[in-house]
Every structure is written in C-alpha cells, then in structure tokens.
Amino acid sequence: MQVNMPSIAALLVAASGRLAVTAFSTRSIASKFAARALTARQIASGPMPYDDDKMPIYALGLNIGMQISQQTDFKSLLEEDEIEILMAGFSDIVKGEETVNPMEVLQKYGPSVNALLRERMDGIIERVKKDGKDYIEGFLDCNEEAEKTDSGLVYYCMKEGTGASPVVQDEVEVHYHGTLTDGTVFDSSVDRGATIKFKLGQVIKGWQEGLAMMKEGGKATLVIPPELAYGDAGSGGAVPPGATLKFEVELFKVNP
C-alpha cells in the first residue's frame, strides 16, 4: 500500500462555510474542514528520534497524526488527560488489544462525542472572534491613517504605488507576510524568498478588496476579519476557525 504524504504549498485559496464537527457517524469517521490553506511552516530541525531503520515507521505515525490534525485540532479541544484517553483508544485499535466492542462504543457514545466537540468548538470560535474584534479596534487606535471599509476590512497604506490597480479578473504578483493577531506567522512568501502570482478572483474576499485599493509598487497592511477570510471553518492547522488575519502585502505587478 502506498501512503501519500501531505504536500506543502503557499497558495491562498478562497474559502467560506462553517466547520462541521462530526467525530463519528455511520458514513464518516471524521469531518473535514470546509477549506484548507496549505502553508509553508518553519519547523526547527534536530536529531532524528530513532535509528534510520525505525524512522519509516515513525514517519507513518507522523503522517497519520498530520492527517488527523488537519481535520480536527484536538490539542485545542481536549485537555491533556483527555488526549491521553484519546491516544489509549487509538493504541487499543492499532494493537488489537481493545477490551470492548469498538462498534458498540461508537454507536453508544458517538453522538455524545459530536455534541462535546461542537460545544467546545463553538466556545473557541467565539473567543477567537472577540480577540479579532479587539485587535482591529486597537489597530485603528494606533494607526490613525488606517481605514475601515463597509465590509469590515482594515486597510493601511504603508507605501503608495504609482501603477495600475487590479480587478478580480487580473493576475497579480505579490510578496506577503501573514500573521494571526498574536503575531504567529502562518504563511509568508517573504520568508520563502519568492514572490507569488495568482488570479485575484481566486483568493479570499479580504485580499480581493484590499488589493483593489492598491497600485503597482505599493505596500499595505490588510487586517481581515473572519467573514472576509476563512470564516468559522478556519483553514487546516494554520488558521483557527473565526480568526482575524493580518497581512503585509507588496504589489509588484498587475497582469490583465
């Protein structure tokens, strides 16, 4: 059997919709995010935890963990002792050491799992949204020249351009640096050292509106509320559900 390892890319993809948290059902074991951003993340490298002959098995475990984490962020939803119980259930199945009938457990407790995850996810989303609103208010207070549009986008011109402004049908070439409101970098062409080209109509609404306000050669900060970004779905493990995003964007070229 061939296992496809997750690839890493840097293209911002338009997304909308709400995360459906369904841990167990008769048709699906786990829900997927409505949309997912594939981001380049910098992870510190170090010595391998096992000898080379054991590392393929470790890699298999990492692959399974990455796929599960992209579907549901259990680290945010569960307490430490609850994660240990979760891993015990996983281990029992993998080792074939379960002491109860797995299907009976899923049929009896599956609905309770779904209700628990929904409740906790809703609480996290509301806290993240509130943090975003507070961040936007603070950003506007600290940057008098920043403007908030009718849609809720915050636009702050860092450098005025002199060229053309793009429309949604155009291809643009940009550099960008994207962070969460706590400063965590979730995607950055600047860090990768290469600009990126894409059709403006293919990315999130906040980018479509914000870049249309720019001109070639310009640079701006965009603070994008969740309804103009990835909404309640979030995007993979990089952008939490309900997150407000901050981008520093430099527009190099507009190609009609």
Number of structural units classed as domains: 1
What is the annotated CATH architecture? Answer: Roll
Structural class: alpha+beta
CATH class: Alpha Beta
Helix-strand topology string: HHHHEEEEHEHEE
How many strands in all?
7
Number of H- or I-type helical stretches: 6
The helix fraction, in percent, is 25-40%
Radius of gyration: 21 Å
Distance between the termini: 46 Å
Q: Which fold name is given in CATH as the topology?
A: Chitinase A, domain 3
Average of pLDDT: 84
- Beta-strand residue percentage: 15-25%
Shape: elongated
Instruction: Describe the sheet with the most strands.
Output: 7 strands, antiparallel
Low-pLDDT stretches: 1-43
Structure description:
The chain has helices spanning 55-71, 74-77, 80-95, 102-142, 189-192, 205-212; strands spanning 147-148, 154-159, 171-180, 185-188, 196-199, 219-224, 245-255. The longest helix is centred in the middle third of the chain and has 41 residues, at 102-142. The chain is built from six helices and seven strands. Residues 1-43 have low confidence and may be disordered. It has one domain (8-256): Chitinase A, domain 3 (Roll). It has 256 residues and is α+β, with helices and mostly antiparallel strands.
